[in-house]
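User: structure tokens for this one?
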Amino acid sequence: MNAIPFSLTRRGLLAGACCAAASPLLTKVTFAAAPGDNRFIAIVLRGAMDGLDLVQPYGDPLLKTLRPDLALSPDAGLIDLDGFFGLNPAAAGLADLWKAKELSFVHAVSTPYRDGRSHFDGQDILETGSEGVNGERTGWLNRTLSVIPGSGKANAIDVAASSELILSGANRAANWSSDADLSLNDDQIQFLKRLYRSDPAFSAAIEEATSADKYSDLLRGPDKGKGVAATARLAAGFLLKEFRIASFSINGWDTHFSQKAQFQKVAGDLADAITTIKATLGPQVWSKTVVVAMTEFGRTARQNGTGGTDHGTGGVAVMAGGAIPGGRVIGKWPGLDDASLFEQRDLMPTADVREVAAAALYSQFGVSASALGRDVFPGLQFSGSAPYI
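Assistant:
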């Protein structure tokens, strides 16, 4: 792949310079710069991913009782992980990562959001890293930029029609959409450059935008940015440049009915995203990368009457990358009997999912434990000795 030099360093890169030319831009990928060679990618799984479906505790006989149509076993296609948990075959693309110890799952986790089931509130808490609704109005990934040692000049990129909360805040951020495309030909670009040559801000922005557009075209290939894999490829591609932190979302996890078919699609998307990231980064950079996928809350332990599950509490976080000690299902398993369920309906959370992200930031960027518990995830009790990394 030919390298096209560019520097996407200002928030509002396209909003200021190219909004008339590069629309529509979707808010699907965000990036931030940070020092060092390590990389971190946060994937937000929007819609409340069913952790009990992705990583099934088939060793617990109550699973089949609670979920007669959703529960699987190794003899029915479930991919055995450790003799108790198994991976849904819809995510079979992740199996090789598991074997290579580049994949772990943290079960029975949730944000502090325990007494409500609103997607809006749940995603706000997940992305702000707050203890409760309206606790913070900036994203934890943005605040992280303030506390990475030596990152005083770190910038961020947020290319989108509307930025995602996780990387929104006081620190510079930039975005680039997976299907953003400059709809100007060379003559039109040259005309704009001449017209605004006395405007330094616009001139710099149009240069950055055209360079980014060329680079993203190289990354996207013939699919032109369609699909989750294209988004993941773009995110990883930018991490090969000056950026060290990226985030994007995978939608479609709200499975109230006919869950089997819908879950098969999105679980496959998640597997495609992570394997695409690895393939794009290559072995050397992948070995320095941590990917964390999190969702706003889990789903009910029991399936409902329409073959789906409803909004719940405890769920699963996914960790991948060459920089993790993988091949583990981590966490304290609470059990599925009525007395062990949260409000007798949901998987009981036994850990704070924010600690999973905190551990990755601690390991990848040397963020202090005190800063993580004070500035990034207020109220989180984090000592730096978490078992996730």
